[in-house]
Specification:
The complex is a heterodimer. Chain A is built from 14 helices and no strands. By secondary structure, chain A is mostly helical. Chain A folds into two domains: about 55 residues, no CATH class; about 230 residues, MetI-like (MetI-like fold), CATH 1.10.3720. Chain B has a two-stranded antiparallel sheet. The termini of chain B are close together. Chain B: Belongs to the binding-protein-dependent transport system permease family.
Chain lengths: ~290, ~325
Amino acid sequence: MKLTRGESVFVTTNYILLTVITLIIIVPFWYVISVSVTPYHIFSEKNGLVLFPTSFSFQYYEYLLKEGSMIYNAYGITIRNTVFGVLLALILTATAAYALAEKKLPGRRLIMLFFVFTMLFKGGMIPTYITIKSLGLLNTDYVLILVMAYTAFNMIIMKSFFEGIPENLKESAAIDGASELRILWRIVLPLSMPVIASIGLLYLVTYWNDFFNALLYVTDWHKAPVQLVLRTIIASSSLPPELLEAAGTTPPPTIGIQMAAIVIVALPMMIIYPFVQKYFEQGMLIGSVKG
Amino acid sequence: MGLATAVPAKKAEKPLKRGLNQIWRFKLLYLLLLPAFVWVLLFDYLPLYGISIAFMDYNVIQGWSGSEWAGLKYFRMLFESEMFRNAFRNTLLISLYKMISGFVCPILLALALNEIRTAWFKKTLQTAVYLPRFVSWVVYGGIITLLLSPETGIINKLIELFGGKPAYLLVEPAYFRTILVVTDAMKEMGWAAIIYIAAIAGLNPEVYEAAIMDGATRFRRILHVTLPGIAGTIVVIFILRVGTVMSAGLDQVINLYNPMVFEVGDILDTYIYRVGIEQFSLSLAAAADVVKGLIGLAMVLIVNHIAKRINDSGIF
């Protein structure tokens, strides 16, 4: 189709505009990676303008990933929290959603109200903190796994997906003598993989990126996840000694360490998201259908 | 929403037994509900009880039982506090600015992306603009801080290049809110655009063809076909955003602010965090939580009411 002149101006402007917006969003990430691999003398020589690194140095990474560094411990904690957290979250969300999707369940409306009410009114940061404290969960290994394990919104999304599964599939299985658990496990869950995957991924990002719950509930450095350690590295202009226990060497300039730490912490998500993006999109859409 | 088959309250004894039987029949489903039920009880409802400390001289050592009731003392203290009023105003302002930018940008982005006909280009752009959504505010805050730093930040280099004077932008009260709004849009707009992109994809192509036949330019097609087509989605998203007006973005602010910009950047959540966790005035901070929660609740109810009148489908 031939474009009129006005249209080709429109199209060209649009292409340019979108490219610029995309660059504004992407370049900062590229810039951080550049700074993290540029030797400090070149960085200061060029006044920080190192969009394209001309020479490379991995001293910051070496420093951060030295043997005995706190980073490993924190990474282990983040991975542990994420794995167990996502599993637990999926179990809690899916079981509740499955039960509440059953329209014949006596008392369903009341139970639903119980589950949804806290979307409207929450206790807030301090009452929650006090609760966690009185439950004896402060500074425990599982506090971060537990506190993020259920979101009413995700449960509702899953529930509306389960409700869309044809009733007669479940009924015929029941006639064949399958128990509820069996129906959930063999029929409903396999049919619900899109919603399970996308909500699982939402929880994954939540667990991996959480720092505020960690800030509130974890004060012991040996129990801190990577985001919290990163926050300390970024917030302090000099590195706290308890973070990097490998003593004896003078640390390289802070800015490079900070940027390298950012890359180390953000990299896993940055690598996986293009591959799992379509599940996230599905998740967003499943959510938006409900509105 | 389907109604629950409540226990039929017909005649005596038999129906009761039938009701219990009915409940017993679903025992496994109740069992499945139990884990989430316990979770919600512990982590959502216990904190509701914890609100009581806002009305007490709560003392950590003595706990609930040993602390004296204080009535509305802490609420009075709050409203007399300059810092609280400040945080309150900032929350509303920042929320409002973000509501405008964070609401308009994704729509424009979706409209613009929709006009791209080169599939690979569109896909690449889309993937690229999603990226920031997948990093935490600790990470993104660190990146922003680097970009804006006075000596080395690339933004300052650009300012110098165009003859301006470099400044440490993050400690300038005059710029802080702008930085919050812009970086929030940068981080979230790609992701937020998905819903609109999907809504546009669901529009009827025949309407476009008709518009083309009528000689509508691309711009006119956007204005008269696409935008009205996604108006319903826009309304729903807008409502959801208004409901969160009391949360101006804790993760972002706590990672970007500093004492130099408290006056313009301190929001209710950061105020509560500082007062409650750092200064350990738990009752005062809890009172602020209550104020925040009540206003948030009121907003949700009002907005839902309006939504029901507009398109007959509230959020709940």
